Fold:
Amino acid sequence: MEHRTFLSKRNIGLDFLRAILILEGVLYHAARSLPGSNNWYYVADKNQADIFSAIIEFIHTFRMEAFFFLSGMFSAMVFARKGAQFFLNNRCKRVLLPLVASFAFIPGVMYVITAAIKGEALSLEGLLHGYTYLHHLWFLVSLSAMSFLIPGRWYNRLAQGMRRLPFPALVIALIVACNVFFVVKFLVKDSGEFISLIPVTARFAVYYAAGYALYLNSDKIPQISQSWLLNNLLVAALGLISLLAFYVVLHQHITSSLKYVPVLISSVFSVVFSYWLVFTFEKLRMKENALVKGIVDSALVIYIMHYPLVITGAWLLDDYIPDNLSVTYVFINTLVALCLSTLLYLVIKQFSPLSVLFGLKPAAKAAPSLANQKG
Structure:
């Protein structure tokens, strides 16, 4: 990979990767209804599927990490090419406005669904209290904070500092920083969702800054991409160790603080894997087609809409699928939620005001036919 060609134009492979990382959240949230998950809206009466659950938890340890890494990289690209004002305007349209639009109804809908699952009566007080929870919208809050509250010059300075570090030292620094914020999150986990979001945002800001620095220091990519840390076998081995750690915790029903050990182990993998993913997908040179474009364009709306659907589906489908078909139960729920969310995306796409609210470009209107023009 030559640095002068790195993201010299739109890269469909990386756009597609970012969309897939977002959409995997649908499967993750569907799987959380299986036994073994804690503090979820609905836990199904199904047999525990340790291997499947371990795979899902393992994927979740790098999914959002890689997403923020990509977000930082694309942010640096927009800054460099179109300037700070364009970047801020774009973030308002693509991140902040969808956050406001989603928060207007998601907490309310989730309150109604949660009350129905628990068999509780609805109340105005309960509805208002429902708006003290972000649910799955937290990542838009974090991305907004990284975009609007942290000056671009800070990322530039961090990029300069990262440039001076050999790649192994940089990886170690990123791992340490991420784990420090993870420990802080653990210490404040009972202080409320909004307080807990501060160390969560700081932790993912580490990945955002790393991606930002990668773009600014793209001349070092040929050297970084050849690092022994990014060897395919080593990356695969790190992933396998992380996966096995999750399996042991689930299979042995470990509920003490030791249950966080796999997360700490996976922090090593997630940093390395973020770089590996970018270099791998950048080289794919995917061609844009209707399916890929549709997935890329619809990913955010589908992710926003799926949450109440997948939780309601977990509740309603539980009685209709045998207890021994845990994985089938998850995949059916995921498929239904994806289909319904896609339908909502298509509806939103057809109405300009809704398209604007959710950061979409309105559907192009068909040009009038020659016959109509003559008439």
Remarks:
- The two ends are 56 Å apart (CA to CA).
- Residues 46 and 322 are 8 Å apart (CA to CA).
